[in-house]
Amino acid sequence: MTVEVIRAGRTGRLVRLAVVVAGIGLLIHGTVRGTDDLWPFGPMSQYAMSVPGNASIDSIRVVALTDAGTTVDVPLDTNGAGIRRAEIEARTGAIVADPSLLQSVADDWARQHPDKPRYVRLELVRDTTTLVHGRVSGHPASKVLARWQVR
Predict the structure, then answer these.
(1) Phi-psi category of 33—alpha, beta or left, where left has phi over 0 and alpha has psi -120 to 50?
(2) What pLDDT score does 81 carry?
(3) DSSP sequence for 109-138
(4) How far is CA 51 from the centre of its chain?
(5) Alpha carbon distance 42, 1 (integer Å)
(6) Which residues pair with 136 in a beta bridge?
(7) CB-side neighbour CA atoms (13 Å) of 149
(8) Which of 59, 64, 37 is nearest to 120 (CA)?
(9) End-to-end CA distance of the chain
(10) Which of 37, 62, 139, 143 has the most CB atoms in a 10 Å sphere around its CB?
(11) 140 vs 65: which has the higher pLDDT
(12) H or E segment and range at residue 106
């Protein structure tokens, strides 16, 4: 079987070159001036460091009280509450300043899961885990950063 090789013409090569230059330009812009919202062209600094052996690690989560009287951790993915953990972490300051931003989490949950208990109260919680010599020391400390009564 012979394979016929078709070479790109001048226009095809110029289009490919323009796409490569644009991609490199977006990567440079995202790295220098961007935020994680520009993914995949945003900075990947979140992956570029390690945690020292004696440090504290913060983790953000959303906790919901349901109309069934249960307390649950909100699944932070697009199939759960319609929002990813990274989006919540990136907007932590805004949510603390305006807890009503959590309303969309409850609305998305109710829309995607009409057969599940509804959220009646949401809390933005920061868990802090302390490391000593690279190992977890004690239990994580939790602090409620924001609270929203769902409407």
Answers:
(1) alpha
(2) 77
(3) HHHH-TTSPPEEEEEEEEEEEEEETTEE-S
(4) 19
(5) 45
(6) 131
(7) 0
(8) 64
(9) 68
(10) 62
(11) 65
(12) helix 103-112
Closest CA to 44 of 61, 58, 27, 60: 27
What DSSP designation does 63 have?
Answer: E
- Which residue has tokens 């929002």? 83
Block residue for tokens 């959303």: 62
Contact (Cβ atoms closer than 8 angstroms) between residue 79 and residue 109: no
Specify the residue for token string 């994580």.
Answer: 140
Query: Which residue, 53, 37, 49, is CA-closest to 136?
Result: 53
pTM of the predicted protein model: 0.65
Q: Could you report the per-residue pLDDT of 70-123, keeping only the tens digit for each?
A: 999 999 887 777 788 888 988 999 999 999 999 999 999 999 999 999 999 999
- Residue recorded with tokens 């796409």: 19
Q: SS3 of 140, please? A: coil
